[in-house]
Amino acid sequence: MIPKTYYIVTFGCQMNERDSETLAGMLEQQGYTKAPEKKNAEVVILNTCSVRENADKRFFGVLGQLKHSHEQNPGMIVAVCGCMMQQQRIIDKLKAKYSWVDLVFGTHNISEFPRLFANVRDEKKRYVDVWDGAGEIVEGLPAKREYPFKAFVNIMYGCNNFCTYCIVPYTRGRERSRRPEDILAEVKQLADSGCKEIMLLGQNVNSYGKLKAGDIGYCYREEENGVDFAGLLKMIDEVPGIERIRFMTSHPKDLSDDLIDCYRTCRHLCKQIHLPVQSGSDKVLKEMHRIYDREQYFALVDKLRAACPDIAISTDIIVGFPGETDQDFEDTLDLVRRVRYDSAFTFLYSVREGTPAAVRDDQVPEDVKHERFNRLVDAIHEIQEEKSVWYQDKVLPVLVDGPSRTNSRVLTGRTENGRVVDFPGDKSLIGRIVNVRITKAQTFSNYGEVVECE
Ligand code: SAH
Ligand code: SF4
Ligand code: F3S
Known about the structure:
Blueprint: E1 2-10, H1 14-29, E2 33-34, E3 41-48, H2 53-72, E4 77-82, H3 88-97, E5 103-105, H4 113-123, E6 127-129, E7 150-154, E8 156-157, H5 168-172, E9 176-177, H6 180-192, E10 197-201, H7 222-225, H8 229-237, E11 244-248, H9 257-265, E12 272-274, H10 282-288, H11 294-307, E13 312-319, H12 326-339, E14 343-348, H13 366-388, E15 395-403, E16 411-415, E17 420-423, E18 433-441, E19 446-453
Parallel strand pairs: 1-2, 1-3, 3-4, 4-5, 5-6, 7-10, 10-11, 12-13, 13-14, 17-19
Antiparallel strand pairs: 8-9, 15-16, 15-18, 16-17, 18-19
Helix pairs in contact: 8-9, 12-13
The structure holds S-adenosyl-L-homocysteine, iron/sulfur cluster and FE3-S4 cluster (F3S).
């Protein structure tokens, strides 16, 4: 064990990645540095996700592996946090079978971590501290960000939509928006330190600032200063130094015309949108409580493409929601073929205890789910293959992330619409935006050459 080192394993979405950056920042403030591996760190944190059963299983797998290192290193502190911890059945299981875990906390008390950690370390006691609901948004927490040139910025927390399959509203609580001045201050500070790309985060960024005084989770009144999500984007677009703005996730039910118009007016908004559709069947969408139908979704896609013809549209789709018939699934395939997504994340429906869909008695058999899933993935790939032709020989600006994961001798980066490109180049280009000609456009990987630097 290397004293004063930490290792954080993050499961799940960008919200969790951002939370892990905060936890890392807190530990670094106390003089801790990142350990090369979890087995030799003094502090190991597992930041969990509960969105599908697989995520739960992976967590227990990693936790099981850690038991041995914990026994071998008496000073090692193992902490677990994140969305899984907001569920009583998980806490009960940890208490019964993993009582050696030193600290358990949840999504609502991350700001308390330094105090909880000090208690565990100094008193050598075990603590479980999980809050049922969120308190005030705590500003000014430290962060150890992964890249100096691109950053996640939370604009809101929680979710009020209660899609009938989804655990997130239970694990992350009600919607709370950060004040626009706090968000802008963070973006300006990032820009001053050389950050070029901002990813604005929220479970449904389109409802930013929508809560009214008196609502649970109310933070500030939109009508007081007139800032909704489109307004916020316009403000961030003006921050000198910020060259790329992305956001996720955008719920189709409140994607406004003002926001679509931002694709015409905001110079730094990337030509990309993640617009989860979940299903192409009106019946299933209704039962999922998504509050839009396929025609409304098509209309949004048309408007987005009218505002920004080259926009890349990505989505999330769930296969095998309870009661999904062959015809419902055909409707999903048809929607996918009509929208022609640039990319899509596809998921097998996973029963989440405590959600309305979990108790339905018309669950789709596993083999049917898998068969549909494979057909959907094939349809998406076919479209992606056709779409990659567009990229061949195009010269596109790429923000250089670093050495490629698959081949460390070349660099990798992303185009404005999110496509990953590998190309040869000097490490001094990392963090810069360079023009790259795509010499080989393929469905899952693109190769190119630098034609001109900033
Ligand atoms: N707030 C985001 C999604 C967050 S969860 C939104 O509404 O777009 C990310 C994705 O996980 C969802 O879009 C959905 O496709 C998928 N998902 C959520 N719950 C699921 C479940 N029980 N089974 C399978 N996939 C699920
Ligand atoms: Fe889950 Fe729906 Fe909220 Fe997204 S909008 S986090 S899918 S409940
Ligand atoms: Fe998972 Fe929680 Fe995100 S359940 S997807 S980590 S909000």
